[in-house]
Design goal:
7-stranded antiparallel sheet; 37% strand; mainly beta; 10 helices; Pdz3 Domain; Thrombin, subunit H
């Protein structure tokens, strides 16, 4: 997976936001004596130099580079190189890694141990989607190996995590202890009864790497970390070893051929209100899912005629537990009915509803769901609490909040102002008036650029009381489905400036934008000398606005005020600048 990173929810060791600092590889830990001395078999069975067994295990750790096309819920469809870790368990090249590292990859390139000069091709052998384990076969022979521990590890045991965190090409080792052996393993990408919690720090890119004891035996396979809780998780060898034994024979387990995560959307995906699904990140060519017609970007809504992810009223957590329970019950090779939603990239509503049978009848379109288009049923005029600003909005935008911005009166309107401020999925608007922004709309728009949009264009706008400029940003947000328009306008006497933002997520929002630009007006504005500061926010922060006149006198520049405008909204969602 690209940058081996997934996000919101538990931090996969191979799927999370990248950290800015790297853990340095531990070179010499003063606990070697506790584990005795170990010997690994190298090429031709030659004895390697005697080293602590936990340190010698590094020779069998591999770095996996995968190239493929992936569709992430937060980033959309793209071709990328991803990375992960693994470990060799047979001299012929049989290695263990994580399912999400290899499933759906077009190519697999493997580097063994600390050798960064020679790479090996690898073939996919088998995987368990729900246990997030996979087996690959590395081309070559006489590789160094590690073995699974004979007994489950106990709490308090010393352990070492080997791998390639942050997709570094340098092998890293961290040490710690086993904290717990019975942590629930239900996440949005895997479903394991229980996992190990340990204190040996791991990071994205560590997925699939071994957790070894002092004797150099594998007691766990690293797969997740909760960075905010400094919690690192691994699948215990007592659970992993029997699964790996099956996978290395080419028999998949709890697997239809996808790399998928459970997701929840802010608005229903279907007319019957489904907001949770399994989002397909990648599909293994030739797998049962591939043959059924499932593709990256699809969302599995139902499996065996039941919702694939339990609704919020049944389970507050968004996990793959039920989906995986169905796979365990039905078996990976038996017919399994699925219902899938397919949308074009960036689409936020509607799409094709398909139904079919994995290991049976391929998917067929059964319904075309309408997009969030149409028209609003009505419009109404709202104002801020001072009555200065007036603007026409859809009646459906019934969450109206009026608070001073720190540089003038302001009004927010949306179906849900919090969602409008904090996501790309809900339409809404914010309009403010100020006498501290100068008289150049272009300069104001320059300061209100969006970094999370694909393209932008500027044009003039005018209505009976204002004239100015607007800037339209397309393909905004992680999935590129939102459009954002910033505008700045002046009255004929240029005594103040009206600055606004409109977020569009559906076709009908174009009419809302048109009405807002045509109707926005100001009445009775007397200046901002006594305007208190603050912006709508759950924490209602108090803003100190840079560039306002002080007792020492001096004029406020347009650049300073534009920066103040951005700062005043940044306390919420960063309305004008992410």
């Amino acid at each position: 997976m690209a940058a081996d990173s997934d996000a919101t929810s538990p931090e996969r060791a191979a799927e999370d936001e990248p950290h800015l600092t790297r853990r340095r590889a531990l070179q010499s830990l003063g606990v070697a004596a506790a584990g005795g001395v170990g010997v690994l078999q190298g090429a031709g069975g030659a004895r390697a130099q005697e080293r602590p067994a936990w340190l010698a295990a590094r020779d069998a750790v591999v770095r996996i580079e995968a190239i493929g096309t992936y569709d992430f819920p937060a980033f959309g469809d793209f071709e990328a190189a991803s990375g992960g870790s693994g470990f060799i368990i047979d001299p012929s090249g049989i290695a263990v890694t994580a399912n999400h590292v290899v499933t759906g990859a077009a190519t697999l390139e493997v580097f063994v141990g600390e050798d960064r000069s020679e790479s090996h091709n690898a073939q996919f052998v088998g995987a368990s989607e729900c246990s997030d384990l996979a087996v690959i076969n590395i081309s070559g022979s006489d590789f160094p190996t590690v073995s699974f521990a004979d007994q489950p590890v106990n709490a308090g045991a010393q352990v070492y995590a080997h791998g390639f965190p942050i997709n570094s090409d340098r092998l890293s080792t961290t040490n710690g202890i086993i904290s717990r052996t019975d942590v629930p393993g239900e996440t949005n990408w895997a479903s394991v009864d229980s996992v190990l919690e340990h204190t040996a720090r791991i990071n994205f890119g560590s997925s699939g790497g071994p957790l070894v004891n002092n004797a150099g035996r594998v007691v766990g396979t690293n797969y997740a970390a909760f960075s905010e809780f400094e919690q690192n998780l691994a699948i215990g060898s007592d659970l992993a070893q029997p699964i790996v034994s099956t996978l290395r024979e080419g028999q998949n387990q709890e697997y239809i051929g996808i790399n998928g995560v459970a997701i929840e959307t802010p608005t229903p995906m279907t007319p019957d209100g489904i907001t949770r699904a399994i989002h397909v990140i990648s599909v293994q060519t030739g797998s049962a899912a591939f043959n059924a017609g499932i593709r990256a970007g699809d969302r599995i809504l139902r499996i065996e005629n039941t919702r694939a992810v339990r609704p919020a009223e049944e389970d507050p957590l968004v996990t793959k537990e039920f989906y995986c329970d169905v796979l365990r019950t039905q078996g990976s090779t038996n017919p399994i009915t699925v219902q899938v939603l397919r949308q074009v990239p960036g689409q936020t509503g509607g799409g094709l509803l398909l139904e079919g049978v994995v290991n049976g009848q391929p998917l067929q379109v059964v319904q075309v769901l309408p997009s969030q288009g149409g028209t609003y049923e009505g419009f109404t005029t709202v104002s801020d609490d001072t009555g200065v600003i007036g603007v026409e909005i859809p009646t459906a935008w019934d969450d109206v909040q009026s608070t001073p911005s720190g540089i003038g009166p302001s009004v927010f309107a949306a179906p849900d102002v919090n969602e409008y401020l904090n996501t790309w999925d809900v339409p809404g608007t914010n309009v403010l008036v100020t006498d501290q922004a100068g008289t150049d709309p272009e300069a104001v728009l320059d300061s209100l650029a969006f970094a999370s949009c694909g393209s932008s264009s500027r044009s003039a706008f005018s209505n009976p009381s204002l004239s100015g400029r607007q800037e339209r940003f397309e393909q905004c947000g992680p999935e590129g489905g939102a459009t954002v328009v910033n505008f700045a306008g002046l009255p004929p006497d240029e005594s103040y400036m009206v600055i606004g933002n409109v977020q569009l997520v559906a076709e009908r929002d174009e009419e809302a934008l048109r009405r807002i630009l045509q109707s926005v007006s100001v009445s009775g504005f007397t200046g901002t000398q006594t305007t208190p500061s603050g912006t709508p926010s759950q924490s209602t922060p108090t803003e100190t606005v840079a560039g306002t006149p002080t007792q020492g006198g001096g004029e406020t520049t347009t650049t300073e005020t534009a920066s103040a405008i951005a700062a005043s909204v940044e306390a919420n969602r960063g309305l004008f600048s992410w």
